[in-house]
Amino acid sequence: MKKPKITVIGGGTGIPVILNSLRLEDVDITAVVTVADDGGSSGEIRSAMQLTPPGDLRNVLVAMSDMPKFYEKVFQYRFKEQDGALAGHPLGNLIIAGISEMQGSTYHAIQLLTKFFHITGKIYPSSEQPLTLHAVFQDGHEVVGESQIADYKGMIDHVYVTNTYNDEVPKASRKVVEAIMQSDMIVLGPGSLFTSILPNLVIPEIRQALVDTAAEVAYVCNIMTQYGETERFTDADHVAVLNRHLGKDVIDTVLVNVEKVPQDYMNSNKFDEYLIQVEHDFQGLSQTVKRVISSNFLRLENGGAFHDGESVVEELMNLVRMRKR
To answer: Which UniProt keywords apply (predicted)?
Structure first.
């Protein structure tokens, strides 16, 4: 039998958790990673070199690699605050930027690094050009730049992307649409709804591919609401926003965590963007999706609430096997 083809779309710290467990399964994995980050080290490198930001790609490379822990520590090492121009930059970001300059693009750099790190899956930036994220709020105000969105007080109506350094319509990276169309399953998230997942989906070619694909489209709903993005959102609200941006009810399956985060557990200083646990609206979900998988997907670590990658991937594999029958 052919290996199931699974494409995971997102960014931030969410999808690496899924990819790290998924790579241990007998599947053909493609990761499609956001390129709209304009803050921190990624933003500085992007601005200085007009490259697609390397940070989310770096985390996905590490998650999909079986590199020894020491090599991972080297790649993820972040320079100290007193290190002048290098302060705050992870070494891996600088390596990706250097190879991007050598190879002429971040796309080619990532293809080279997947071989270097012995990655069996495929990793593509969602676009080969750096993108700028625009958020239009319900009061009509527009904020430009992913790192600025959470600072505006208001509810986001919709987001869209533009090419940062030219006026052309944003395009998907080569092979991304092909991967979506040939997949047995597409996994969206987990991750920040408006700033990690949607910047990929609103690229017109990717949006159309998700509408057209015969693949099962599964969304791994966030555990916590997020300051400046999804305050007071239920799980059904998350799905509604995704489908509205896609222009059609595309989500087939939603995975929701039903395990409670212990009261006062979250380290509010370290994880200050996360507010309260996402509430459930199973009736609302049942009106738009074919199935809801509710289970204990919670992993508590270092004062934060994360998805347990093994538990999520176990359910995803059950789903994809069911489709293959």
So the answer is: Cytoplasm
